[in-house]
Amino acid sequence: MALMTAQEYIESLRKLKTRVYMFGEKIENWVDHPMIRPSINCVAMTYALAQDPQYAELMTVKSSLTGHTINRFTHLHQSTEDLMNKVRMQRLLGQKTASCFQRCVGMDSFNAVFSTTFEVDEKYGTHYHENFKNFLTMVQDNDLTVDGAMTDPKGDRSKSPSQQADPDMYVHVVERREDGIVVCGAKCHQTGSINSHWHIFMPTISMGEADKDWAVSFACPTDAEGMYMIYGRQSCDTRKLEEDASIDVGNAKFGGQEALVVLDHVFIPNEYIFLNGEYEFAGMVVERFAGYHRQSYGGCKVGVGDVVIGAAALAAEYNGVEKASAVKDKLIEMTHLNETLFCCGIACSAQGFKTKAGNYQIDLLLANVCKQNVTRFPYEIVRLAEDIAGGLMVTMPSQKDFNSDTVVGRNGETIGDICNKFFAAREGVSTEDRQRIMRFLENMCLGAAAVGYRTESMHGAGSPQAQRIMIARQGNIQGKKQFAKDVAGIQ
Ligand code: SF4
Ligand code: FE
After folding, report:
1. Cα(357)–Cα(142) distance, rounded to whole angstroms?
2. CA–CA separation, 309 vs 336, rounded Å?
3. pLDDT value of residue 176
4. Which residues pair with 180 in a beta bridge?
């Protein structure tokens, strides 16, 4: 099958019977829901750009499984060049959407599960790798979006999965049958869950023998019987429900999406199982998936950062201060921080290596350094953006005020006239353009889009401490001590 167009992707979602709940109610037409649709548009961009001759070389690639032309979001990386192209593609998508475009979690799970299942089969003679290859071939040939689901609710974090008072705190097998397994549990803040055709579930931590029933990985369709999602709300999200508020929304076209995904006795046929009790491999899949997703942030957040820097520069221009040396210097600092993140994304890719299964894995230490920097630099970038923009980005009246014809002035001026008079930009720039850039920055720095640019930079792909643990493990302090001993002449 050929690659899907953006429109075909959106239409394909309508055919699913995905169960979505929001504000305590079932949402029937979630595809056109004003709070959900921007996140669908965002994923649709991963399809649209693949159709665009200008970007086709970056967005598409030959499948290592079939030789067919596929979207890079469904690809198994075959070289360090592939790994770098992944990061370049994510930067491009970030620039085009200024949002989280969600499809990367699937790509990262494909590559992690592909290499891990190979090594499980090698040890146990299981057939998970074959299962996975068949599944991925179907995904590639149908150009599907898949959610990579990792983060369990975790309950009492001092306890392992098997020690939890409620066993559902981690996804687990509740029944083993001849033809498959039945699973229960949930995954929290799942990026792009509702917009995906399928899900791949993976364990979220290393496990011991007692946790066998929780050491499970599998694929299932998003509208599987027993599965449903509860939509996660975002700051200022209900602005999207207001009439005449496209400017106030900030980024009316695109957005991210997170949901709680619940598995209530979902049956998984044998052919979609990728791990089932081989607990010592839980840690491997976590480490690999997290590594890929920490690399990802050196692309997506950089692309979004490009838009934030551009918006700050426009705000300065509209305010007539773009020539001030302090403003120029802040833009230089923002660029420096943003490009440092890109350096990390490219570096961990360039230092990648071939796994036993044949696909390429990033350098784990550098990917963790990448994500650790992402937990900091976007915060400084938005601080500088807010500094440049000025307080107006959070104090300006609503779009309804700017459009209002209610008379307030002694000479018959309307609320709209007054707003347009006092919020006028420099000559040659419309007040509306100034409104747009201020609201866009508000959205990016502390509105709905801040989920994707700020807090996701902190906690997405693992919170800062998770990277510090990996940095400690990979940092080779013993080797460094030896360097010091050798140079200092210590026996
Ligand atoms: Fe992709 Fe970035 Fe969103 Fe993760 S946070 S899904 S890497 S856009
Ligand atoms: Fe993320």
Report:
1. 23
2. 11
3. 97
4. 177, 269
Q: Is residue 452 predicted with pLDDT exceeding 90?
A: no
CA 102 to chain centre: 5
Phi, psi (degrees; rounded to nearest 5) at 94 = -65, -40
Residue 149 has which token pair? 């689901």
CA 93/CA 72 separation, integer angstroms: 12
Ligand 1 contact, 300 CB (< 6 A): yes
Neighbours of 360 (CB within 10 A): 20
Q: What is the pLDDT of residues 104-154, one digit of tens each?
A: 999 999 999 999 999 999 999 999 999 999 999 999 999 999 999 999 999
Q: Are 144 and 198 in contact (CB under 8 A)?
A: yes
Say if residues 389 and 346 touch (Cβ distance below 8 Å): no
- Least Cα distance to 248 among 236, 265, 234 occurs for 236
CA 320 to ligand 1 centroid distance, Å: 35
Tokens of 70: 């596929």
Report the pLDDT averaged over residues 229-239: 95
| Residues linked to residue 354 through DSSP beta bridges, in sequence order | 360
Place of tokens 């019987």: 225
Q: Which residues belong to the active site?
A: 100, 104, 191, 258, 293, 297, 300, 456
Supply φ then ψ for residue 250, to 5 degrees.
Answer: 95, -60
Buried b (16+ CB within 10 A) or exposed e, 362-397: bbbbbbbbbbbbbbebbbebbebbbebbeebbeebb
Query: Which letter does DSSP use for residue 232 in this model?
Result: P
Q: Cα–Cα distance between 283 and 337 in angstroms, integer?
A: 32
Neighbours of 413 (CB within 10 A): 13
CB of residue 107 inside a 6 A radius of ligand 1 = no
Percent of the chain at pLDDT exceeding 90: 98
pLDDT for res 298: 98
296 in contact with ligand 1, CB cutoff 6 A: yes
The residue whose CB lies within 8 Å of the most ligand 1 atoms, and thus the one to mutate among 86, 92, 102, 107, is: 102
- Residue nearest to ligand 1 atom 1, measured at CA: 104
The secondary structure of residue 361, as a DSSP letter, is E
pTM exceeding 0.90: yes
